[in-house]
Write a structure and sequence with these properties.
Distance between the termini: 28 Å
Order of helices and strands: HEEEHEEEHEE
Largest sheet: 5 strands, mixed, barrel
Shape: globular
Number of strands: 8
Number of helices: 3
Helix content: 10-25%
Oligomer: single chain
Radius of gyration: 16 Å
Structural class: alpha+beta
Amino acid sequence: KLFVIALVATVTAAAGASALVAANQSSPSQGPLYGHIRSITPKNHRFVMQFDPAWLLTGSAAERACGCKPVPNDNYVVDESHKLLTFAVRRDARVTILLSGAQHVSPVSISVAELAQIVKGKNPKHRPLLGRTAGYAFWIRIGTQYPNPVVSLEQQYQP
């Protein structure tokens, strides 16, 4: 059962990748990885991020993991370890968060510095954030060159 869940989770992550805005074309990347950002702090010419990875499951894998049918909101998050991974984040990493509008959700590009403030619970530009951005999940892409910094972060919509 775990193999099937892991396989479906991998396929789900790959499908989620197609929905992402491509990372900077001059920076090849790995990923994406799904999870929650716990902190982002400036350090030298980069930022350092604490990231709690998880699996965003859909379909039968989600049904089996949650033990329910149908799955609420058509997805289920598995985050068993809560082990924080540390990543360098490029200062020019592409960041997309979601804003709440009167009738729809809108993506907007922001800087890593602004995201760091939002994760701390601040909102320096007084944007209409969709929920608590710090508590929401992101898809991240990791660069292929050492020290393999994060090159893009895309907030995942969660109803």
